[in-house]
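Subgroup meeting minutes
Present: P.N., E.W., G.H.
Scribe: E.W.

1. P.N. recapped why we're keeping a running log of single-chain structure predictions: easier to compare across weeks, and new members can see raw inputs and outputs side by side.
2. G.H. added today's entry (355 aa).
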Amino acid sequence: MNGVEQPMALPTAPRPPTGTAAPADVLHLRVKHDAQPAGMSLGQARVLLAGMTRLLQAAALAVIGPAPRFAGRRPDVVKTFVEQDVRFTHADPAGALLAVFTRLDDDEEGPAPGSVGQLTSRSQATVRLVPFQRRAGVLLAGALGEVVEAVREHRPARAPATPPAAGPAGPVAGPAAVTLGEPPQATWQAPGEALRPLVLRGVSADLCDALLGMVTAPRVRTLEFAFYWGQSAGLDTPAVVRAAFHRVDAEALARLRDELAALREPRRRTAVYGQVTRLDRGDGDDGGVATIHGVVGRATPRTVQVAVSGPEYDDAIRAYRTRLPVVATGRLRRSGGVHVLIGRFSVATAVVAGA
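Output recorded in log:
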């Protein structure tokens, strides 16, 4: 359809490995090989497993605080996530499918509302938060969709035989899908600051480097990712998300990685995930201060105040009334006994980019 290769059909109801009691999210990685004999070699399996581990690490790090690149020692919460919550299985005897099961905490709750200002009675209930593992999985799925779109723009410009279409193919009917096939070519003209919105959505040089290593592994022609979400009481179930990467796009992916690595990030951002429990109107007509009770990282309690205006203020009103989860990302400082976050405020939706 319009030259865009559609993803192969994948199972619609993946099941966790036998003996797994807790609900689990499932990531399927399907590999299209070259014409050599079927099956996955030990060398290829080593590269793909290492790449998958690095993808999950990059997503977990971005949940804690998004950055264009991550240097230094990995936090213990990231190590625990990868080493204890993630399981790999070989789901296809022919060697083309690897299944990654991520255990979800049975009942992860945020902190009880704290003491920032006087809270209304509706905010006194315990805040129910999405588990860290689900947040990392949703962020990874969305980041892969963002990389699909960015790599399209990073391809070298070529004169198309026919005029390009108005835009990339939209979601197919049913599960969400974002794929790389042969879309219209474009020239990348806005590096640097234009990439910062992608960073806030979980895209990093580390994530791109992991993808690059996987898509250039021996015999790999195409990698197809499919995200399925376990059903758990009290949690919304996002739509299935798919994304595909092709070996021919390795050069464009490397360009994106290099530009992300070159971004200047003098201070690490902090992401606070939680619920709006108080909203105070400011002096203007379209702004105010939102108080968020939530967590940093996996479950570190934090209550912060963040200034919101314009569309962000509208989102804060909606989140306060409906108790939708929100994410505030930016610089966190303490002022007069209060944690103040200066940065970006958004509603944490269950449907990721591409859905």
